[in-house]
């Protein structure tokens, strides 16, 4: 009798623990991210915009230059055939 009561109370505790989770919703609504090549909000750190970590020669909003830089990084830094030479 005590064993059945113990098992029932453990099962009830597990069921009630699962009901206590709060819904995970975004109260502010959907936030749309800016495209990567649009730069940062504060472009005062470096001439031409961007931050201290911005690649040299890149202008804020230049999509073609951004894509070329990403392609170059991929070829030079992540292509094992190029790295072994």
What does this structure look like?
The protein is mostly helical. The protein has a domain at 61-85. Helix content is 42%, strand content 0%. It has three helices and no strands. The chain has helices at residues 2-18, 63-77, 80-83. It is elongated, with a radius of gyration of 27 Å.
Could you give the topology of this structure?
Elements: H1 2-18, H2 63-77, H3 80-83
Short synopsis of the structure:
By secondary structure, this protein is mainly alpha-helical. It has helices at residues 2-18, 63-77, 80-83.
In the predicted model, the low-confidence regions spanning at least 5 consecutive residues are none
Task: Give the SSE order as H and E letters.
Answer: HHH
Residue share in helix:
40-55%
The overall pLDDT, averaged over residues, is 76
Major sheet, described briefly?
A: none
Shape: elongated
Please state roughly what percent of the residues sit in beta strands, choosing from under 5%, 5-15%, 15-25%, 25-35%, 35-45% or over 45%.
under 5%
Task: State the separation between the terminal residues, measured CA to CA.
Answer: 75 Å
Q: By helix and strand content, what is the structural category?
A: mainly alpha
Please count the helical segments. Answer: 3
The Cα radius of gyration reads 27 Å
The count of DSSP E runs of length 2 or more, i.e. the number of strands, is 0
Task: Please supply descriptive tags for the structure shown above.
3 helices; about 80 residues; mainly alpha
């Amino acid at each position: 009798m005590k064993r059945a009561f113990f098992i029932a109370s453990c099962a009830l505790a597990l069921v009630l623990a699962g009901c206590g989770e709060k819904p995970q919703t975004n109260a502010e609504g959907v936030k749309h991210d800016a495209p990567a090549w649009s730069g940062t909000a504060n472009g005062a750190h470096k001439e031409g915009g961007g931050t201290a970590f911005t690649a040299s020669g890149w202008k804020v909003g230049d999509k073609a230059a951004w894509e070329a830089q990403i392609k170059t990084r991929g070829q030079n830094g992540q292509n094992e055939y190029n790295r072994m030479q």
